[in-house]
Amino acid sequence: MLRRLSSRATQGLAAFFSSGKKDENLICSPRINNEKRKTFDIDNSQESHTQHTIYFNPVVLFGSFISFAAIAFYVGVIIRILMLSNSATQLNGSTQTMNLSLSVATDWKNEKQLPPPTVIPGKEVPPTTYTFQHFPVEGSRTNYDLHLPRLDELDDVVSMTNEDDSSDDSSDDSSDDDEDDINDLVEGLHLPAGQHLLVDIKNVDPIFLNSEERLAEAMIQLVDESKLTLLSYHCHGLIPVGVSCAGVLLESHVAFHWPTEGVISMDLFTCGSGKLIPTLTSIQQLFGVKAANEDADDPMMMWSHKLRGFRKGFVPGGEYNHRLNPLDADLGLKYLVHTTMISRSLLLSDYYKSLEDDGSYESLHPEFFAPDHILLLDGIVQSTRYGDAPYHESIVHPAMITHPNPKRVAVIGGGEGATVREILKHSTLEKVVMIEIDGGVVNLSTKYLPEWQDCSSIAHHDGCAEWCFDDERADLRVEDALAYFNDNFGSSSISKASAEPDLQEQFDVLIMDCLDPNDDHPFAKVLYTDDGYVTSLYDALTDDGILVVQVGEAVNSRSPSDENGSFENRSTMIKMLDAIGFKSIHIYEESHCEFGAPWTTLIAFKDVETRKRWYRSPAAVELDLSRRILPTMVVRLLFATSMGQR
Question: What's the pTM?
Fold first, then answer.
């Protein structure tokens, strides 16, 4: 019908343009007949009017549209139902919001009862909701979910714990202080910054790593000792062996798993103000479980500490200042002792090869491939393995070799023992007194940094020992150096002279190897600016005595003057030494100490004649060193070998 209508219209237009009659018209007029049908008439000059009709049924058209829409809707609904039913067969459990005392999934065969999380007495826990959903997979054999009780039940638990604590009279004195510490931690729960501690331990007992109960107990104990709050935790027993656990903390999270046999990997993140580094000792004790067999190796722990978020040191549009966090490096070993391969650009594979006995260059010279050890105190670098010799030799030997005959030497600080080690190498020495306020640094260095206190190279001499503090000439005193010198050499010590004459003996060389002058610590300001203490140091020296003080980072072209910068304490001390009566004051630098910048040492002379020896030629200094320094075992063996060859 439509094709016929189009043909008729085309013929009519052709006839119209060919006739040339401008008065003829093409007329299209719609009409509606009595049967309500639509009619179109086409009129032209050559043919009479012809009627063509097209039929439209509105009911059928509307019904067809509704039918197709309904079919599409129901097909979509059926497909959606099929998809949801298929997903429901794969998921076990549904999302729930609750505060239950204990929730254990029943889809797994859990035959063990794990301990629930606990709350530190006195710590307020804000209202929380608990939501979980399980996705069973083939590699999981068990599943556990445990979380804190309801708020009302939690109050009962805390009150019962408080009653148990109150029954112990010995804890009454410290309960208030502990509660204050807890409240201080709670105040910093939601800081815009955090700390991330990553820990890896190997040689761990496989039986311990495969026990959900023991791992859960260790995690709960770690959280309690760290004064954190464990809201919930989740453990999965893996197939064939292994356990992975994750704990949700009020402060953030803790998680651990074992990627291979005998190894556990853990990460602990908090957004609170509490420090994470002290938890390393607890982690080592709780998770570093040695295997029961006799030939099992001791567990070894490595760790990394990262500062996260927005804090001091993060500048918008700038870079993070890594020097504000000395722990922000690659690998770590033990507490306060950091191990890294980064600073020496060494390969970890070369280090492992140096431990073998295969005759390779690395195994024959392991000292060249050992990782760097860094000793930190309150986050501040104190000493490094590769900077040990450059720093301690530079602070000791220039003064010792300049003095004509140093017999008595005092060391303030120097807890790692390396300063005493270098002093003991001088044959003129009769006594060295080391006054260290923190005995923990000495003990820690003895255990983890034995090379700092190793005097085995001179142990063959009379009175010497393999451990430096066992030397007959060494006198270690764990006490406050400020009080020691003020009491024995200050103005108030005159009345004590007859009572303690042995403490009144003056020193030929006095070395102050303690806090930096720019450290943000009240004790640092006293050490460098207290008039009575500095005067007692002057009085503690003999007439030709020498004072040596490490005075921090060297200045550069961009540094402000000490008076206007962070080294105001250094400037104050230099002025005080000059006013007290020292005849000559010098400052020299050492750039191999691995502190990130050249380090400066101050040396002050009470006598002008002693200062003259400071200006000797290098040849004269070398000759004096060869005569005074005790021959080491290595030099002795080399000398004996060369004489035998002759």
Answer: 0.56
